[in-house]
Amino acid sequence: MLKVQFDPAKPIYLQIISEVKKALARGELNPGDKLPSQRELAKMIKVNANTVQRAYREMEMKDLARTVRGQGTFITSDEQLLSNIRSKMILELVDSFVLEMVALGCDHETINKLVKERSLKNDEP
Amino acid sequence: MLKVQFDPAKPIYLQIISEVKKALARGELNPGDKLPSQRELAKMIKVNANTVQRAYREMEMKDLARTVRGQGTFITSDEQLLSNIRSKMILELVDSFVLEMVALGCDHETINKLVKERSLKNDEP
Amino acid sequence: MLKVQFDPAKPIYLQIISEVKKALARGELNPGDKLPSQRELAKMIKVNANTVQRAYREMEMKDLARTVRGQGTFITSDEQLLSNIRSKMILELVDSFVLEMVALGCDHETINKLVKERSLKNDEP
Amino acid sequence: MLKVQFDPAKPIYLQIISEVKKALARGELNPGDKLPSQRELAKMIKVNANTVQRAYREMEMKDLARTVRGQGTFITSDEQLLSNIRSKMILELVDSFVLEMVALGCDHETINKLVKERSLKNDEP
DNA sequence: GTGGTCTAGACCACC
DNA sequence: GTGGTCTAGACCACC
């Protein structure tokens, strides 16, 4: 039987945190970098300033960012923590990929073969 | 600089089509199977019947399904087409995975290694 | 026995498509031309905008038109396709005419004779 | 510019008369034949009995039919009149066909050629 | 301004 | 019961 589940549309503040983490993992954002001001980001992504504030507050609670009154919000400089975030994201990505592939009926051998093939394909052109 | 893009929230009717395709790829839905009636699925997933109808109509236009007035909507029996859908889904999944991993700074060797590791991990426990 | 079938009143969205095709066949509409906006046409012909949208969407799926977000819907520039549409319309018209004439008890000779006669009549006065 | 005109959905009683005339022209209905009773036809085509009555009344006024109390409504036996009806229908059909073909850009020669071709095609298979 | 999605609900045709 | 068409109107994204 068919079962459809919708993106329960992840709350915006969590989406913001995810994006910050991705930017970190990709090196687009670095330790110590200043984040856009709350107002600025709110305008950029057309979201209520309170939503941005909530995202920043949560990041602070996880020691991912630090807010300095009158100066702004900054990415932590704790490289260890950032490295952990990156590793965790990568593992999550791999695991969910493998699970999905298995759900589609691929065995581990096939998965490995396909990944090898496609990473070469995406390499040359 | 940080750039946040929200899920442009894939339209519901496309999500429905995706779910049907996934169900097919996983063998939860088979050639010739009857889909839930428009009203039934609409109630199940709390969506307007018109939205379900649009999904079904698009599937019909792609020959993925066939609608019979007064009877319902049925998955095509064209096994060739269904097999193509599965292959395409798998390749897309692999490619987007590889791309994301590369964006996260992993080289192809690392990707292969991690996939091998995690598919074993997921195997035993 | 008498059997009456009502015009199943061809759906409006199909009538719109037919009219566009006729306009093309007659050269009143040309490759690349912009169609009226959905809302505009809707107002012109006193029909809901959704109905017009459906017509335009179907034309797009048949490659008869191309829609650009924020700009409008345009007739394809594929002259080959447009030429095919015209030929197909003409043949359909001729065939349905011949069939109807035969149903009315005319043989092919009579049909030819009448067509010749009437096309001359319509020519002079 | 595009102009769409809708079928103004010919009134049902006129559709009934047209169908009777067509049936006559095709020989499916003959001089003197009994038409279905008003009630019967109303049920058959799911239409209000008054609508059928109006159609029958108009046919009577044109001497196309004759109603006998307690017996029913009968097609006239006036063969002359029936023959006229048939001729008129045929001429109308030919004329509207020729006009439409001209609108589609066909000249008279082309029309004649196509009619000849297609009436042969429809003959053999 | 443009198109795109979605809802709620009416009404129809076919079974 | 099934699907098909249509409306009125909300709200969104892109220009």
Please supply descriptive tags for the structure shown above.
homotetramer; 125 residues; mainly alpha; Arc Repressor Mutant, subunit A; 2 domains; two-stranded antiparallel ribbon; 5 helices; 2 strands; 58% helix; DNA-binding
Account of the 3D structure:
The structure is a homotetramer of 125-residue chains. In chain A, 58% of the residues lie in helices and 6% in strands. The first copy, chain A, has 5 helices and 2 strands, in the order H-H-H-E-E-H-H. In chain A, strand 1 (65-68) and strand 2 (72-75) form a beta hairpin. In chain A, helix 1 (12-25) crosses helix 3 (49-61), helix 1 (12-25) crosses helix 4 and helix 2 crosses helix 3 (49-61). The longest helix of chain A is centred in the last third of the chain and has 25 residues, at 79-103. At the A-B interface, helix 1, helix 4 and helix 5 of A face helix 1, helix 4 and helix 5 of B. The structure holds a DNA duplex (15 and 15 nucleotides).
In short:
Four copies of one chain form a homotetramer. Chain A is mainly alpha-helical and 125 residues long.
Identify the most extensive interface between protein chains.
Answer: A-B, 54 and 54 residues
| Strand neighbour order, sheet with most strands of chain A | 1-2
Total count of domains of chain A = 2
Strand content of chain A: 5-15%
Task: Tell me the quaternary state.
Answer: homotetramer
The main pleated sheet of chain A reads as: 2 strands, antiparallel
Cα-based radius of gyration of chain A, to the nearest Å: 19 Å
- Tell how many strands the DSSP assignment of chain A holds: 2
Considering DSSP H and I runs of 4 or more, what fraction of the residues of chain A is helical?
Answer: 55-70%
The CATH homologous superfamily of the largest domain in chain A is called Winged helix-like DNA-binding domain superfamily/Winged helix DNA-binding domain
CATH class of the largest domain in chain A: Mainly Alpha
Mean of all residue-level pLDDT scores of chain A? 84
Structural class of chain A: mainly alpha
Kindly identify the CATH topology of the largest domain in chain A: Arc Repressor Mutant, subunit A
H/E element order of chain A: HHHEEHH
CATH architecture of the largest domain in chain A: Orthogonal Bundle
Inertia-based shape of chain A: elongated
Count of alpha and pi helical runs of chain A: 5
Poorly predicted runs of chain A: none
Distance between the termini of chain A: 41 Å
